[in-house]
Amino acid sequence: MGQLKVVQKVGAGFIPLLVLLEIAGFLAVRNSVARDNYVDAANIVTAGFAVLVCLYAATLAGGRFRAFWLLVGSALALHLSGDVGWAYCHAFHIHVVANSLLPSIFFRLYALPVALALFLSDDIRPRRLEDFLDGAIVVALVLVTMYQVQSAETSAGDPHMWRVISAGTAINFVLICGAIGRSLYSSRPATRALFKRLAIYLIVYGGVALFMSLDEVYFKQLDKIDDLFWTISYLTGAAVAITWSPGGVESETADLRISRRASLLCFNLTLAAMVLGGTVIGLRSINPMRIVSLGGVSVVLLSFAIRSALMQDRQERYLAALQASQEQLQRQAQYDELTGLPNRRMFYEQLAQALALAKREGWQAAILYLDLDGFKPVNDRYGHAVGDELMAQAAKRMQGRVRKSDTLARMGGDEFTLVVAHLETREDAGRLASELQGLLSKPFMVERHTIDISASIGVAVFPKDSTQPEELVERADQAMYWAKRSGPGTMAYWAAHETGLPA
């Protein structure tokens, strides 16, 4: 932290030194032929310094903070590219027509990375104000495209140049409003500090840009010296970056969020504006400038086609994963994970449906309550892994015997229930219980261990023993415990004269 303060002090002190050197240099060469080259060099130096400072700020922290300073640095780098282009033209006496896209296109594109920086947020859930600001940024990006098309068709001396100036001013105004809104309503102080600095830079930049446009088109009183005013915006960008300190931002865990809905809307609206502008240009005479514009529109259309295909594929995979996740959650809520049988909750739902059907059609139904005899010693002797495999094999044997209309469920532990529908007599349930006992009495082979178990089964019959689902299950459970007292591998009906239990 001490080293950071030293760097900030040195960088902040270098800014006024650059200002003094620029003023002194211009006073020295203002009446010489090297004046224009000096102004170009001054712009390049200050813009390059601002870019380096933003890159340095990006190395101080990660996440949205690094992305923020990289985007701001990209905006300044676009201005640096434009200054280098004009310096090259001036140095080699290359004539540039007044309405040429290059190298002025770099100055017009600065708003794109700035607008993307305004999308950065530390809030996971978007709010209404954020949606409004995202929409404002979308408008700014569309205006960027319109501004480019209008600038391509209007020369500096055109009487309608005020439209271009108005469009550029509107872009800057929207970006300033977006930065101020983010600085006021971001949820974390570190994020508010970022957008406050961006708002300061945009206010200075917007004022310089408006002054330069009006002077160039309508006044032309300052001649070449007016280009030095761009260094004010560059040095402002350097100042807000060099004085920024990450503080405790490394400990923040908020996710970087770029509004998917707003970014998609931004892309589509920008595409529509570019296609419209390209069509207008294409209907007129063709020249190199218009070919560049049409080529740009073609690239955007191709990018849109690829992006649409990728987005559709991503959405389909997302929906498939979501559906699979929902099915898995539903299965976990209704089925036993170990055996794959319905759990207690699913059992009661199936039981209510089976009893309602039996009552409507006049059939009897029965509940068989099973408890595996000798299962606990298996867990104690061989471990829970063997016990779980034994439980799964026992469930599979029973499931192979029951009908599709019946419901076999695991109630928990080593207890199972079976809902048997469409019975003619109570003895039919008894015969099924005997068959299940015979299946479970056969030896099980689990991890090279031969294991013998049996099952005690209690039977309760609808509607004789009860017409209520919960009471019917309770009475089948009582019958099962009476059977266990009689010895392993036995079966008992619930009936007052046979069990001795209260009716």
Walk me through the structure.
The protein has 503 residues and is α+β, with helices and mostly antiparallel strands. The chain folds into 3 domains: 2-281, Rhopdopsin 7-helix transmembrane proteins, CATH 1.20.1070; 285-334; 344-499, Reverse transcriptase/Diguanylate cyclase domain (Alpha-Beta Plaits), CATH 3.30.70.270. It is 68% helix and 9% strand. It is built from 17 helices and 7 strands. The protein has helices at residues 2-29, 35-58, 63-91, 105-108, 111-119, 128-153, 161-185, 189-219, 230-242, 260-282, 288-334, 344-361, 375-382, 384-401, 426-441, 469-486, 496-499, and strands at 364-373, 407-412, 415-423, 444-446, 449-451, 454-462, 491-493. The strands form 2 sheets. A 5-stranded mixed β-sheet has the order 2-3-1-6-7, with helices on both faces. The longest helix has 47 residues, at 288-334. The radius of gyration is 40 Å and the shape is rod-shaped. The chain starts with a helix and ends with a helix.
